[in-house]
Each structure stands twice: as structure tokens, then as C-alpha cells.
Amino acid sequence: MKKEFKIGLAGIAALIILFCGIHYLKGINMFKPESYYLVEFENVNGLPESSPVFANGFKVGIVRDLRYNYQKPGHVLVGIELDQHMKVPKGSRAELVTEMLGTVKMNLLLNLQNMEYYGENDTIPGVANNGIMGAAEKDLLPQIQRMLPKMDSILGSLNKLLADPSLANTLHNAEQLTASLNATGRQLNKLMDTDVPQLLDNVNATVSNLQVISNNLKDVDYASTIAKVDSTLANVHLLTDKLNRKDNTLGLLMNDSSLYKNLNATSANAASLLEDLKAHPKRYVHFSLFGKKDK
């Protein structure tokens, strides 16, 4: 009997530990005194049991159970357990907030101006606040619905554009243009790396030479040079004047036509003499190995 008694006690202890463990995993502390309240909502937005209850951002309790209010159709009663020291002033309300990921939490909006408090098992009014998702559903969804026909038209035009073979040709031409630009860029890089520095060196050398020439020109006596040029021009003018006059040999040579005629006549006589010499050389030259014969 002692063995069976021990086995029974162990089983009972295991059940108690299991019961307490399940409630602990749900967030229910079996050994901590708590106050029980009811909150009435028209829509709980999928609020699960064991959800935390917050007041001013601090957890003050959990959702113990949910049940439909058959005496008041269209309403749901949510049982919450709050810390025993947590007092809820009358005029407060509970708010369900839907977060971005769809989770729902309960916030107690306390009326701190009232010093009267709800008693245990009293019903606290509740309201639903859909938060960002509700605002998106209210404001954003109608705009999206109005935009859907335009989006269909845009997608249809886009599909038509993508199916046009000219787009593929344009992309091919753009690819070729990009390749040409790349080749041009490489040539420009080569030009900047090799030719441009050499050109700059040549320009620098030319500038240096021009600077030397400028320095040399700076040392030139321009007044003396111009005076010499003027003297030379005067001599040329005097020579030209003498050539135009007949009171000198050069002037006569340049301006007397008789001298020209005499020269022509002399040339003609010389030419006639040469022809006669060629035709009758014996008249002018006598040469014999044995002496001259008498004619």
C-alpha cells in the first residue's frame, strides 16, 4: 500500500505541475493574486487568449478568456486578469490596436481624473483601433482600386511595347553604341596618356623658343636697322633714276634703241661670218705640211 500511495502522490504532483506549467506558459501566474474584469467589444479583430494587456506601455495583465455575448448579439466579452494592485478608474476604456504585422494587443486607456474605480467582474467598454492597417484599408485601398484600371492599361501598353521588335533593335543599337563609346574612351585614355603629354612637351619647347626669339628681338636696334633700310631704299631709288636717264652708260644701254640695233647688226654679221667660215674655211685658214703654193 505504501508503494501504491507513493505512485498516486507522484501522479497527482505531476498533474499539478503540468496544470501549473500550462498556465505559466500562457502567462497565468497561479500563485499571484489578480483581479478579473470583463471588456466588451463589437469586434475583437482576432485577439487570442493569453495576450498581454498594457497600461501606459507597461504589461499589467493578460487576456484570460473570450466568449460571445449571446444576451447582447454582436458583442464579444473578453475576460482579463489584472494585477491585484491595478485599479481601473471609471470612465476608462480598453482599446484593441492592430499592429503592422497583423498582431492585436489591448491597451487600457485610464481616466486618471476620476477617483472612482471598477470593481471585480465589472464590464469595461472597449473600442477597436485598426491602427496603420485600418488607415491603409480606409484611405489607401480606395485609391488602389481606382488605380487598378489605369494599371491594367499601363501593363497592356508595356507588354505591347516589349513585344515590339523595334525595341530589341533599339537595345541592340544601344549596345553597339556603348561598345563604340567604350572603344572611344580607351582611345581617349591612350591619347591623354601618350600623345597629349608629348604635345605639351612640344608646346613648352615652342614657347621656350619663342621666348628666346622674343628676348633676341628685344635686343635688336630697330632705329639703326630702319635707318639702314631707308638708306638702301634711297640708293635703289637713285640707281633706278639713273637707269631711266640717258646721261650715263647704263641709261644709254637701257634706253638707247640704236645700241640695240647695232648689237643686232653685229650679231647678224658675226652669224654671217661664221656661216661663210663654215662654207669656205680655206679662204680664212691656210695650212700645209709642204709649204704654200703660188696661185
Automatic annotation (TrEMBL):
Residues 36-100 form the Mce/MlaD domain. The chain crosses the membrane at residues 7-25. Coiled coil: none annotated. Keywords: Membrane, Transmembrane, Transmembrane helix. The keyword Transmembrane applies. PANTHER family: INTERMEMBRANE PHOSPHOLIPID TRANSPORT SYSTEM BINDING PROTEIN MLAD, INTERMEMBRANE PHOSPHOLIPID TRANSPORT SYSTEM BINDING PROTEIN MLAD-RELATED. This is Mammalian cell entry related domain protein. The lineage of its organism: Bacteria, Pseudomonadati, Bacteroidota, Bacteroidia, Bacteroidales.
